[in-house]
User: Fold this.
Amino acid sequence: MSVLVIAEHDNSQVSPGTLNTVTAASKIGGDVHILVAGSACADVASQCAKIAGVSKVLCADDDSYKNEITENVAALVKTQVGDYGHVMAPASTFGKALIPYVAAQCDVQAISDISDIVSDDTFVRPIYAGNALETVQSADAVKMMTVRTTAFELADAESGSAEVTNIDQAGATDWVQFVAQNLSQSERPELTSARIVVSGGRGMQNGENFAMLEKLADNLGGAVGASRAAVDAGFVPNDYQVGQTGKVVAPDVYLAIGISGAIQHLAGMKDSKVIVAINNDEEAPIFQVSDYGWNEDLFTAVPALQAELEK
Amino acid sequence: MKILVPVKRVIDANIRVRVKADNTGVETANVKMAMNPFCEIAVEEALRLKEAGHAEEVIIVSAGPEKAAETIRTGLAMGADRGVHVQTDDRLEPLTIAKIIKAVSDKEGCDLVVLGKQSIDDDNNQTGQMLAALMERPLGSYISKIEKNDNGFAITREIDAGLEDLQISSPAVVTADLRLNEPRYASLPNIMKAKKKPIDAMSPADLGVEVSNRLTVVKVDEPPAREAGVMVSGAEELVDKLKNDAKVI
Assistant:
């Protein structure tokens, strides 16, 4: 049996999360194939062909796949499920919308956000904001799942040599019309795959103060994130949010600045290798999970840290 | 337009859950329960659409044991018109729940189903997507804005890279993200009024839905705990530790 990975991409670049998903797919055993649904996406297909462990790339190049509309991609995936034993996608907003949709069409109970693979039918996944780990065994003939990308290494993106097969477009709907995207433009690394993340919380007081964190992140080559409180308050856009219902990150270093450490936030960052917390409240729960805690006002600490790094 | 809002009864978001000693699940006995926060947002949005004159009726549905009726009552106290309680003590997976909601929506003739994007217990984030697929209706997932217009609904979705605007036709299924709205609190008079609002009770079998689980929960474990670290007193010490002890910068 083979595993089908659904590639996530922007029509020019395959996402790092797809590389993590290939690693998860390789752990199941059997061939790993990748499906690329996009528009003018030949570059993405060639990138996928070079991912280590991938033996076949299926590419459907059609205008209806340009914006990753769930219904359209699902219609294509459904035609390809065939003999695959497993269908996987990264647990991003793309994968989390797509996989349950396809699963329901195929009368399969999907498995969300797997963080470990016990066997070809048994998987581990976090529940209750990561406060418990559930091991589930699936009785479905095809297992469909999203993959917690931080739990699996990136597959090598250069050493593979798979063949690319073009496949036909299948059944797009006219229910959903794409209107526009307002994407955050940034030269910084992408939040979920950055090696260093500098995150701010309610303690930042306003959006302008995030400039301090951006400077710090630029100095360290990192990305900027935020707690839900900071996003709800309008300091930064929604795509900065780290937590149970936002993004899950596991960088080498996570700096939590002015973040108290609600369990919903911890759910999105507690697998980071090293956690640094700066907070003026010595009782803040974030200190219970941090490797290095600094009980100091952030408006004193951040400039001091910046100066020290510039030395 | 009739709007259906499925809601789930979960352990209160402020409670720290504990894994049972026998690893069969988490402790739910004598634990405070509440409506799933994302479901509250869904109820609120349905009420706002009704208050703006786009809907005549908001119906709350929940599938679960007897006590799920309390959660339906919470939605009625917020202002919904009536409830449907699909009673069962069985463990329900999202696919089964989606089949139940579809059956209720078909029976009631609902034009819009508004759900929370995920429940904070199982963190599945599946039911809305499955429902849209089963109903063959357009899906608006993770929405932070919805407006009724002549062609259906204009929605804004929160996606990993930012925001996305879509136009979807009606009837539709949408799932609420955090910033769609801030749910109201039920006032005391509305809580009293809600006690008189009707809740229809039925079983999954009455709706023609068979409860057949595909997943077996093998075990539930505590996650590995992080060890408490050290406190530093200044920038120099912190940078030194990151460079020389942790070797990460």
Notes: Chain A has a mean pLDDT of 96. The CA atoms of residues 64 and 73 of chain A lie 8 Å apart.
